[in-house]
Each structure stands twice: as C-alpha cells, then as structure tokens.
C-alpha cells in the first residue's frame, strides 16, 4: 500500500473501514457522509462488505468524494444471516480479515490515484492500526466506538475485571462505574465463553485501541463525566462526538406505514412505543408477557415488530387491541420518539436507541437482551434515573403494567421525564457551534485530512 500526502494532480485518500454487522455500518456511514463536505479536496473510500454496502447505498448522500468499495465477507454466496447464531457470520468475516480490507484499500488507492493519508475504522476492527502502520509513513488511525462510554470502559479494563471476579460485585473501582455490577457485563468479559470469536475480538480491541491517534466515541460531554476523564487520560486524544444522530443525522425516510399520522390523533405523552431494533427480540414467552401487559394496562401503544414475529403474540391480541394500539413492521424511530404523543419507550437499550430516546426526552422501560444493553439499562435506571428496569431477569405481564404505570402516571415518572429532557438539553448544547462535539468534529477533520476545517453548507 502507498501512503503520503499525495502529489500535485492527485487526490489524497482516507480509508473508512466498516464492521458490517448490526447498526455498526450505518453509524460509521453517517459520519463518513459528514466528512467529505468538510474536506472536499480529499477522497473518502467506504470499505465494507458488498451486502452491507448495498443497504447503505440506498441512503447514500451521493457526495462526489465518497465512494463505496466492496470486500469479501468470508460467507458462502448462498448463506443467510441466522439471528440465533450471529457469531458464525462474524467468525467467517474475521477469518478473511485483515487481508480483505488491505485489498479494498489498495483498490481505492488505484481508483483515486492519490495516497492514503489516514484510516478511520470501526473500533471492532482493531487491526486497522496495523494497516495504517503498513503504509510506511506515519498515518493517523481513528477508531469509532458507536456504543456507550461505559461499555467501552469495560473492554479497556477486561484483564482487571477478570482478576477481580468474585471479589466485588460493584464496579466502583473503575472510573465512573459505581453502581454497575458484574452481572451487567456483556458475556465474554468475565463470564460465558471467554474464548469465543466475539470475546477475543473485543479483548484484543481493548488492548489495541490506546494506540489509536484518536478514538471517536458516540457520546457527549456531561453524560458520563468520570468515564470520559479517564478516557482523556488513557488515550492520546479522545473525541466525544455525539449524539451522532444530531451531529450527523441520517437522511429522512418516508413514513411508509403511516404511524406518525396515527400518533397525531393521540394526546401528548400517552403512547407507549415498543422497539427492539433490527437484530434481536425478547424470547417468545417474554414477548407474549409484554403483549399481555400492554393490553392489561389499557395504554395506547405503537409497536415496531417484524411481521414474521406476529405469530408469537397471544392468540387474538391483534384483534382485541386494534382500537388501542398499532403493530407495524417498521417505524421511523427517531421521528416517533420526537413525537409529543410518545410518553415512554420500551427498549432493548441498544446505544443508538438510548440516544434517540433522549432526543424526545422520553423515559425508558429497559428490556436488555444481549451485549452492552445490560450496562446501558443499569445506567438508565440507576445512574441517570431516566427509566425503569425489571426486578426479575424475565419480563412478566405484571411487571410490564407496573413499569408503565410508574413512568406514565406517577410523580417519579414525571421526574424521569424532566431528567431526560435535561440531558438532551446538554446534548443539544454540545452539537451547537462552539460546543464540545462540534469542536471535536472540526478536530477529527483536521486529523484525518491533514487540513484546516472547511465549513459545510
């Protein structure tokens, strides 16, 4: 591979390397779409699997200096993603890395005719630092962490956590993590299969990330101050750059299901919105308990649920609640959460969903399923106090009705709403001109393009 500052007549090149699973590529793509306008003299190459790129191309910003490049994902051509075995596809993908990305970067260099001046990657791709080092001259590596800062802290301190298993259930010995318990950690950190593909990937990432020129984190100053202070000390430079849904908003998609119009007919703050993301749902028994709890509460609800899962709902549920709620296959989630009719969000606590819930100042009922969602749920319910978590590990009808009552009908629920709105006010301040996230975006452009910020329209 070739590196340098380019020569006259050539366009300098920034390689953007995506982890093609879950919400990862969409978040990195949103950031990548923001950068070309700020550095119009630089060619940005979005290197990703063909399957993932095909999805993103439908919402591409069409920036003339942002191009897609496909790489091998290691999966057989006729394979399909199995939600029950996500690690199989990730394992296939990791087997062909980093060679596939090296080839994609070389193809981009040939296409642009310029030299690679920096590498941006999803933090999961810990080897991106090695690819940058292979270029022969100092080239910045910037890693994007699109989860919350607390979950990143866990991966940075994995070895210490493994040494303390059974000593203390509270993680107060880590900066800013008081109140988080060992049981809130993702599998593969201190429990479960520590040698799984994903566990090894995240452990290696935690070891390698301090080498990065500047980790970028999808958060904002004021949300987890003690954790960010630790990051500023641990990394060469740390750039809190969020919420990215505010700083780099994705293109608006039309409301193809009519749910926004349905919300327009309802009173302010009375609707329960339920959404578990695109890649996981609660177990069938808990899904049925949730449905029964919604029905028993008598509260209007909007539920985003793929049609293939409708058969898991209790018999007759859709017919009985037709006048009360709306079950639909898709929603424009951010616009739903910003709608004044929505009063509570029943969520899996994925980080993007947490930030989007804050965008409307909407308290949450936490139903974490996997990964970092349990840490996020603990912060929501016990640290920021902007939502409630179930006392039992499994969701029940009675706990659902109780949680909805607390958030929608009690003084404590009103305080949750006020706290959520206060946090969102802080977030809005940080993305305004002169705010920390806005200034960190300027710094990012300077790092990756070796140039002065160019204001975009």
UniProtKB/TrEMBL annotation:
Coiled-coil annotated spans: none
GO molecular function: quercetin 3-O-glucosyltransferase activity; quercetin 7-O-glucosyltransferase activity
Domain of life assignment: Eukaryota
Annotated keywords: Glycosyltransferase, Transferase
Database matches in Gene3D superfamilies: Glycogen Phosphorylase B
Pfam families linked: UDPGT
InterPro entries on file: UDP_glucos_trans, UDP_glycos_trans_CS
Family matches, as CDD domains: GT1_Gtf-like
Top-level EC class: transferase
EC number(s) stated in the UniProt entry for this protein: 2.4.1.-
Family: Belongs to the UDP-glycosyltransferase family.
Listed PANTHER family: FLAVONOL 3-O-GLUCOSYLTRANSFERASE UGT76E12-RELATED, GLUCOSYL/GLUCURONOSYL TRANSFERASES
Protein name (record): Glycosyltransferase
Species for this entry: Spirodela intermedia
